[in-house]
Amino acid sequence: MSNTNENNLVKSLGVPTGLMLSFIGLVILILSWVGVSLSPIFMWICLGSLLTGMMVFGISTYAGESEGIKNNGIWTNTLTNRGLLAWVSGVVITGFYVELYWFPEMLGLSAEGTNTGLIAFFDPLSYALKGAPASQWFVYGTIYTICIVGLGVKFIFKYRHSRYQMWRTISVMAAQLFLAYFIPEILEGMNQDQPYFVKDLKHFWPLNYYFFEDWHLNNMTDQASGSMGMFYMVWGILGFTVLTPIITYYVGKRWYCSWICGCGGLAETAGDPFRHLSDKSIKSWKLERWLIHGVLVYITVVTAVVLYAYFTNSSSFMGLDIYTYFRKPYAFLIGAAFSGIIGVGFYPLLGNRVWCRFGCPMAAYMGIVQRFKSRFRITTNGGQCISCGNCSTYCEQGIDVRAYAQKGQNIVRASCVGCGVCSAVCPRGVLKLENGPEENRVTDNPILIGHEKTELNKEII
Amino acid sequence: MERIVIIGNGISGITTARNVRKQNSQAQIIVISSETKYFFSRTALMYAYMGHMKKEHMKPYEDNFWAKNRIELCFAHVNTIDFNNQKLHFSNGKQSNYTKLVLALGSKPNKFGWLGQDLDGVQGLYSYNDLELMEENSKNLRKAVIVGGGLIGVEMAEMFRSRNIEVDFLVRENRFWGNVLPKEEGDLVHRHIGEHGVKLLLETNLLEILSDENGRVRAVKTDTHGEIECQFVGLTAGVSPNIQFLKEAELETDRGIVVNEFLETSQPNVYALGDCAQFKVAPKGRRNIEQVWYTGRMMGETLAKTLTGKKTEYKPGNWFNSAKFFDIEYQTYGVVSAQVEEENEQFYWEHTNGRLGVKFVFNKSSEQFVGINTFGIRMRHELFDKWLTQSKSIDFVMEHLEDVNFDPELYKQYGSEIVNAYNGHFGKNIQIKKKKWARIFS
Q: Which of A66, A294, A461, B81 is deepest in the core (most CB within 10 A)?
């Protein structure tokens, strides 16, 4: 019992300390948001205490406890059961996104002259990294990265019995920190004479929907961009035409969605406490298939049109202005409203993977590969399923995993991002993510092992 | 028209209904329950209590599934059965007839006639009502005493510990789950539940449950630890068939409803299965009452065939089971007895962290593999099932430990460590083979 007491001490000191530090960081952030002018030192205090606060909270919450599944009280906590706290945080995050996308001047962006407010508050860091003032995207990227890293540490301690979960999380943290944040920002600072193009190596089309827009192609091929621009263009094209289908064939779309993607990274770390909120009904599965493939078709059409514009040097297509009728609506509806506002703002209400499940065209593309030509599956372990439903409850993609497992059927679904949590929460060791031979991967007519049976009807209800 | 009425909507009854529908699109299928209208997974009760799930998540099928498959659900209680006229009498005065009747009545927690066993705050954990009662009884609960060291007991302990309620666990045997687990495994679980703050009192018997002035439990009296103050007593010393309303009926019963190998009872057109069925002659190598999720499901699949015109004998294959003790998963394939049989030899490996352990049992003379208990390491059911059926040797099993491992990717593999220990112990020189898909999915 002494063991337990020490653990309680770690928890009882660490949790409030972590919360307090995060709270201090948050208060400073809000002060600068509402326009209070703070000296540069406060930025470092703010970001430092946010990051360490999250880590201290995460570590002390779980470090003292026996390794295992930590879902006690998930459905009774007001933050994680769509209670009051969930609504409050949903509104705050959504508000932030609305300002970020549509009213950046409310964050302090100034069209002429110097920025103020929240954006100016981040100048010290921006100057340190790239020698230029902060933009709203720099602010967003920084907060985003802090959340992934800080809450990634929490996730690692929560799932420290699972090496799959630990490595996967280290991978999304590193991908965000270096590929999406430090490297692009530093490259940006080193090449200030270059026109802007995306420098995140993993941000492939169609997730990066403006890759083929004429301005972006022009910027990459601009003389000032030199060989670096060419490299990013060739890489970006090879990325989605060659790299993505090949890796997805071998390991499933998880290599992207839950190992390196930024959206996935935030969903798996900051969004982890909300994964159980995804809708599991057949109805939502139907909606999902229409929506996500609809977005994929949408971006394909838009891209075809912008490529037409690029090669023909025209600004309209069949009499329609390309910016007004193609680029802008996609950026507004999908790029901002869907992926940002609904995708992240509604984490506490709809779950952490709404964008990845219903909207992301990259996920849709890889999903088609995963469903029809891949070695990846979730294997069901013979007849061991007890239909308890932990797997379905904690599937962030809303897959009714149990419906397959209780029939002894492998799970081969386009939407599975391979987070591995179904396998982790299964109390009977029934589920295993693995890359095996394609033959017999889809078990339409499984036999539940355990007794001698002669035959089985094809129709499975 | 065929009218198949199933009493009981647990895994046995529901599997029967679903599989009858798969093979016969005509028959009327009616499932009666007075527990819940919709099928839910009993195994999930603990997760609802601990806040891992909401109660609605316990339902494996959406509510519209039943109408879609024309399985009629009837929330009612059957009082008596008139076997001669093939009629059911409900508690609300209504009646219903059947052409075939399936009794899937389940179990109820054992009560061994302890003084005070019916006091407020004393209960078992089996049904949906038990869960709600437990929720009610948990208000202001500081300390619970659980009686009976088996699977439901340890689940109950985990439930209470999730709310920081103190738990004393009374176990009659000299180790946890002593009639099933060998000593090493029992010790492993014992240590682990101790780490979770559960006090396991071994070789301790409950003498009496003591009442306060309101008819509520205030303490228990034990033979080794005197009086233990508590506000809750969990009775988890096994379950027995839930058949008391049939005791007067013209139906052969013993501890359970007596059935033959086709799950037929002594009455024509009446069948019984699952927890409540007792085999006249136990299937080979099995007990005559098996109250396990998996056997209920397998009996349901079998009975559905008989009900749809293809008379089929219940033939369970190789034994398997699973459980979870707080954070440690347990799987078993084949036969591992609490006390190793005379003709068998055993080999046990345990990790130094004390949370992973594997027990192998094999025949002394033929070295044929007999069974395995595995703690904290997942193994493939399909492969073990095949190996048992093919009477593979223990050396073969050792060679293929990497094939059979079912732990998530990137987990540390202990195959070589286990094989080295095995080699050292028996003076052998088995080389473990690298995992090969062709052998796993053949």
A: B81
> Which architecture does CATH list for B320-440?
2-Layer Sandwich (3.30)
* DSSP-based three-state secondary structure for B279: strand
Cβ within 8 Å of A, B 204-243? none
CATH number given to B3-108+240-307: 3.50.50.60
In CATH terms, the fold of domain B122-237 is FAD/NAD(P)-binding domain (3.50.50)
> A5 to each of A69, A129, B159, B195, how far by Cα in Å?
20, 45, 20, 11
The reply to whether A439 touches chain B by the CB within 8 Å rule is yes
Report d(CA A335, CA B81) in Å as an integer: 65
Tens place of pLDDT per residue across chain B (442 aa): 899 999 999 999 999 999 999 999 999 999 999 999 999 999 999 999 999 999 999 999 999 999 999 999 999 999 999 999 999 999 999 999 999 999 999 999 999 999 999 999 999 999 999 999 999 999 999 999 999 988 999 999 999 999 999 999 999 999 999 999 999 999 999 999 999 999 999 999 999 999 999 999 999 999 999 999 999 999 999 999 999 999 889 999 999 999 999 999 999 999 999 999 999 999 988 999 999 999 999 999 999 999 999 999 999 999 999 999 999 999 999 999 999 999 999 999 999 999 999 999 999 999 999 999 999 999 999 999 999 999 999 999 999 999 999 999 999 999 999 999 999 999 999 999 999 999 998 7
Strand B357-363 to B369-375 pairing: antiparallel
Residue ranges per domain, chain B? 3-108+240-307, 122-237, 320-440
Q: Residue B378 and residue A386: Cβ atoms within 8 Å? A: no
- Picking from B20, B284, B322 by the largest number of A CB atoms within 10 A of its own CB, the best residue to mutate is B322
DSSP letter string, A34-101 = TT----THHHHHHHHHHHHHHHHHHHHHHTTSPSS---TTTTTSTTTTT-HHHHHHHHHHHHHHHHHH
In angstroms, how far is the first alpha carbon of chain A from the final one?
49
Q: Cβ–Cβ of A427/B382 closer than 8 Å?
A: no
Q: Please give the CATH number for the structural domain made up of A375-435.
A: 3.30.70.20
How many beta carbons lie within 10 A of that of residue A196, not counting itself?
Answer: 11
In contact, B58 and B99? CB cutoff 8 Å: no
By the CB < 8 Å criterion, does A453 face chain B?
A: yes
Fold equal for B3-108+240-307 and B320-440: no
Q: Check residue B290 and give left, alpha or beta (phi > 0: left; psi -120 to 50: alpha).
A: beta
Query: Taking the CA atoms of chain B, what radius of gyration do you get in angstroms?
Result: 23
* CA-wise closest residue to B151 among A428, A385, A394, A4: A428
Burial of B50 (0-12, 13-18, 19+ CB in 10 A): buried
Domain with CATH 3.30.70.20 in chain A: 375-435
C-beta atoms surrounding A35 within 10 Å: 11
Rounded (10°) CA dihedral B3, B9, B13, B18: 70
Q: Is A31 exposed, middle or buried (0-12, 13-18, 19+ CB in 10 A)?
A: middle
Q: Give me the interface pTM, i.e. the ipTM.
A: 0.96
Whether chain B has a CB inside 8 Å of the CB on A244: the answer is no
From chain A residues 403-422, the ones with a CB under 8 A of any chain B CB are: 403, 406, 420
Whether A357 contacts A278, CB under 8 Å: yes
Judged by CB atoms closer than 8 Å, whether chains meet at A451 and B301 is answered as yes
Query: CB of B207 within 8 A of CB of B221?
Result: yes
